[in-house]
Amino acid sequence: MQSQQFEDILRSVPLMSPEQVNVLHTTLPLAANTVTSNVQAESRFLERLKFYFDQHPVCVRCRSAHVNRWGSKDGHQRYCCKDCGKTFNAMSGTPMAHLRVREKLDQYVECMDGETTLRPAARRCGISLDTSFHLRHRLMTLLENDSYGQLSGIAEEDETFFHESHKGDRKLQTPRKRGARSQRKSRHAKTEKKASVPLIPVMVACDRNHHVIDAVLKKVSTEELQSQLEGRILAGSTLCFDAHLAHEHLAEKLSLTAKTLVSSSGERVKEGIYHIQTVNAYVS
Ligand SMILES: [Zn+2]
Q1: Ligand 1 ion local residues (Cβ < 5 A)
Q2: Which distant-in-sequence residues (6+ apart) come within 8 Å of 84 by Cβ?
Q3: How far is the CA of 174 from the centre of ligand 1 (A)?
Q4: CB within 8 Å of 255: residues ≥ 6 apart
Q5: From edge to edge, which strands make up the β-sheet containing 87-89?
Q6: What integer pLDDT is reported at residue 21 of this predicted model?
Q7: Per-domain residue ranges for the chain?
Q8: Ligand 1 midpoint to CA 235 (Å)
Q9: Separation of 78 CA from ligand 1 center, angstroms?
Q10: Higher pLDDT, 167 or 128
Q11: Model confidence over 229-284: pLDDT tens digits?
């Protein structure tokens, strides 16, 4: 509903007769239940993908960034391309388009742990073997699409830290939140010899066209980052990152324009467009 329509309804409430107010009383709880059940049915995984896309929507047909919001359908924000007229949403043209088992997706993502095969995953999620196969295929394709392509334009780079897995336990632990105190310490791990659980740095870089590169690092250094990103970010692009000497040297080595965010001081956006919120959303 347009916000103007909603405001018109609110303005008309004081003018309603007692009978009309009664009808409203009985209608609202039903509407609230519908909204709640829709929200519950939506997958957190898809919500993240949508958030990521909605930051910088681009046309699925011509890749133009000149798009208008075009209402919403089935819980997805729709867009219309100003250049070619194509309408689309965050899922259009991706392996997640027309997905029917959204409510099982989060549970299924947890089964993508490198150990759970198709049949146990199907049993755990209460879906057929066929659906298990199709969900896995879609998720694998999504990951593959995300991992290829050269970054260009405005790119973002950051690291997150995972606990080192214990022997025999190959499941990844919850990553440290970026900017967390303990993470800051771990960046200077040389001075933190007594750290009880080693943390593994994982680099994530992305651009505003949904290309993503990630890699496990031995440590956060210019050399390590350069070896992962050399030739994978178009020279002349802009790289946004959190203040860290290794990042600044990296931008210099790769002939990139550097945009440093001092997020520890609360600096989130520079010049209106430079930030690392997209990469942070991907990490989370
Ligand atoms: Zn277009």
Answers
A1: 59, 61-62, 64, 81, 83-84, 86
A2: 59, 61, 62, 64
A3: 38
A4: 235, 236
A5: 67-73, 76-81, 87-89
A6: 72
A7: 3-41, 96-147, 154-283
A8: 26
A9: 13
A10: 128
A11: 887 888 888 999 999 999 999 999 999 999 999 878 888 899 989 999 888 887 87
